[in-house]
């Protein structure tokens, strides 16, 4: 569908309205054409913040230090001084309301080590959410010609924020935020002015024009609408109100929801709580709790299928089949080859991976796993990165990979060995989790 008026009069314009319960596209205009996100970028910055809180890498009370680089960012900003700190929750409010660029950079540096690394993680997360045309180069949305997105991708991100973080989503409805002696109002003027609007984010640069993503939830209907490239804030808001008025009643009151599959980067795999393998082998209740109910593919707003399945689902499926046993096979002089024995199936040397290190001792006792990937080099890279970033017990652990087949898909499990008992393995897992890695510990 197309819309007259702004869509035809403004070459920067792009828009889309998506039924958030069914995924059906109710309206689109240049929805798949590249646009600059401006401060809509902060939606992904917030997504990664919410994810870090969910994973336990930070809490809402975590103090985030402001670097000289962050303090020097141009407005819109809180005006934080270099060396000062702000809590994670204050940062969330500042991003939602004031759209503070100094806070965005501080968050990026805290979570990613550098803004460039954080931008890489933002792009990686975008891909995992099915945002195929989005690339991030910074955490705030200030001008960068390589930082691009589409109206459709922004709608997907808006839906993902509500679906994946329903508790944190309430921040987007914040009308004002007090910090120090100042009170900052939300840039989203539709909050409180248009029935059902409960977020999400505004954005503007000269190159992008005036952008807005709105979520509407009323009378059993839910939509996410995107307007990009408005000539003024007022015309953008008027266009958004027009779209809401015209298409909200066309949205369904019924639908499966869960339109955006919650996937994770192989470097941040969410695994079950650390600990030994449960004695019981019936994981049906856990599988039900993890599964998305009534998930269906809608052709107009397709659900990305993460392939291969990694993280919780892969581990649970494997554990439901067997308890893994790691044994040495055909050991060369300078390295150890390990394989996972599945029931009575014999795995030859050609079917297994060499361990990453040159250690000649076969992994035994307690081991920890941080993920599974179809590419061995990626599994090895994951282990080396975890080793260098985590330190502590992991610095002395022996990394290795184990090949296994699941539903015809070969996966390489990334594991560490060499722990002195359960307590040390669990401590290593805690260290990994603090550095953003999922971890599962078991005794071999």
From TrEMBL:
Organismal lineage: Bacteria, Pseudomonadati, Pseudomonadota, Alphaproteobacteria, Hyphomicrobiales
Gene3D superfamilies: DD-peptidase/beta-lactamase superfamily (3.40.710.10), Sporulation related repeat (3.30.70.1070)
Keyword Protease: yes
Keywords: Carboxypeptidase, Cell shape, Cell wall biogenesis/degradation, Hydrolase, Peptidoglycan synthesis, Protease, Signal
One Pfam short name: SPOR
Gene Ontology annotations of biological process type: cell wall organization; peptidoglycan biosynthetic process; proteolysis; regulation of cell shape
Boundaries of every SPOR domain copy: 360-444
Classification via PANTHER family: D-ALANYL-D-ALANINE CARBOXYPEPTIDASE (PTHR21581), TRAFFICKING PROTEIN PARTICLE COMPLEX SUBUNIT 12 (PTHR21581:SF6)
Tagged with keyword Protease: yes
GO molecular function, one term: serine-type D-Ala-D-Ala carboxypeptidase activity
Protein name as catalogued: D-alanyl-D-alanine carboxypeptidase
Active-site residues annotated for this sequence: 39 (acyl-ester intermediate), 42 (proton acceptor), 99
Similarity-based family: Belongs to the peptidase S11 family.
Positions annotated to bind substrate: 201
